[in-house]
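R.M. (postdoc): so does anyone remember the format we settled on? I'll just put the structure tokens first.
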């Protein structure tokens, strides 16, 4: 007999940022350079060496472009795919009117969640990228700091406020200033925020690594406040690709390797030993790879004594996994087959609304197919219980 799927708590969805987040909150002197949404022809800019440059003869239908400092960034269809058939999953630039209102409007989002059997949702950003990298890359870090705080104020005071706990706040930090980052964690925790977005591999952003000791004030603030460090797949900006001429699908398959590399870092670094109540969440990484990483980390630690230092004080790396590192999935039969080795208490579920590989509006059916055969207690943990406990939710 199959178990029933309870109301779901999704720990990885996304907000398509509405136009007023920054313009409504930054001082007047910054409005001309702070992020603002402009309607321009779809091919007003083309991507050259990773940056968007103005086209000589812009054409195409009206489309939404974020303008920040002197750079433009498109709003692309595949980040707001909910409600469109797969054959329309493409990279053309769209307007907010071309997507479901639930992508960027609170009430409509709550309605779409209800339609999808989702009680509560944790939303990562889109335009600022998954941990606010766009502000780290900005020229003016005073303005960038204002933008980080503006996003967090919107997240707490507007996006989540009045949702009855159904929208769970996830805030950003100024990645370029660890002291200010720690202060922002504490500022948001004081108003009920229990999750902060961070890069799975900060060194890939040309920031200090987690080995350096630089991030210790941030880790201390997170432990002190019970703030979970949430790392979305790809928040290192770079992804694994086998060759310059390999298609994007290769990187799409391999992107779990970012989370795997990050997990190895944390288990070996001693950070989880020094901060014994600190908790990590890996988002959209799937889970089937975890048992091998745990096994391999321990074997390498025991076998290759010359290759490591003594930061773990003799403890096996995998000893820092249980009750400390959590991962979420939405497409992983292999992971469910190995759930006993991954740990049923450390697996969470997601819908990835409104992205192109999200499961809306069929998430309960997807959940039933993936893990509905498990006992009811385990189903309840995966679908909602583990998220409620990890994030301290009042549901």
């Amino acid at each position: 007999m199959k178990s029933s799927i309870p109301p779901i708590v999704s720990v990885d969805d996304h907000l398509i940022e509405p136009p007023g987040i920054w313009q409504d909150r930054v001082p007047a002197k910054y409005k001309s350079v702070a992020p603002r949404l402009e309607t321009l022809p779809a091919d007003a800019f083309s991507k050259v060496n990773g940056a968007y440059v103005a086209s000589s003869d812009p054409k195409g239908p009206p489309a939404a472009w974020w303008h920040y400092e002197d750079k433009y960034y498109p709003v692309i269809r595949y980040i707001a795919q909910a409600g469109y058939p797969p054959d329309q999953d493409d990279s053309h630039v769209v307007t907010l009117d071309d997507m479901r209102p639930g992508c960027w409007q609170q009430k409509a989002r709550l309605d779409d969640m209800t339609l999808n059997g989702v009680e509560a949702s944790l939303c990562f950003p889109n335009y600022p990228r998954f941990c606010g990298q766009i502000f780290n890359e900005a020229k003016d870090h005073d303005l960038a700091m204002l933008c980080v705080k503006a996003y967090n104020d919107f997240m707490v005071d507007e996006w989540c406020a009045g949702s009855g706990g159904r929208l769970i706040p996830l805030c950003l930090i100024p990645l370029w200033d660890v002291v200010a980052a720690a202060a922002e964690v504490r500022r948001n925790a004081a108003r009920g925020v229990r999750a902060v977005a961070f890069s799975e591999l900060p060194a890939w952003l040309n920031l200090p690594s987690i080995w350096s000791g630089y991030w210790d004030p941030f880790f201390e603030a997170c432990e002190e406040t019970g703030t979970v460090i949430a790392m979305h797949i790809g928040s290192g900006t770079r992804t694994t690709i086998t060759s310059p001429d390999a298609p994007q699908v290769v990187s799409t398959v391999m992107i779990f390797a970012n989370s795997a590399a990050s997990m190895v870092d944390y288990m070996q670094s001693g950070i989880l030993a020094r901060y014994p109540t600190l908790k990590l969440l890996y988002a959209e990484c799937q889970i089937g790879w975890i048992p091998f990483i745990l096994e391999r980390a321990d074997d390498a630690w025991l076998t290759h004594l010359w290759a490591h230092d003594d930061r773990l004080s003799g403890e096996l790396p995998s000893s820092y996994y249980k009750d400390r590192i959590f991962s979420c999935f939405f497409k992983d039969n292999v992971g469910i087959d190995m759930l006993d080795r991954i740990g049923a208490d450390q697996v969470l579920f997601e819908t990835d609304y409104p992205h192109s590989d999200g499961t809306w509006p069929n998430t309960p059916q997807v959940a039933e197919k993936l893990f509905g055969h498990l006992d009811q207690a385990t189903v309840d943990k995966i679908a909602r219980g583990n998220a409620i406990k990890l994030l301290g939710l009042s549901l």
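R.M.: ...and that's the designed sequence above, right after the tokens. Also worth knowing: The CA atoms of residues 174 and 180 lie 7 Å apart. The chain has a mean pLDDT of 93.
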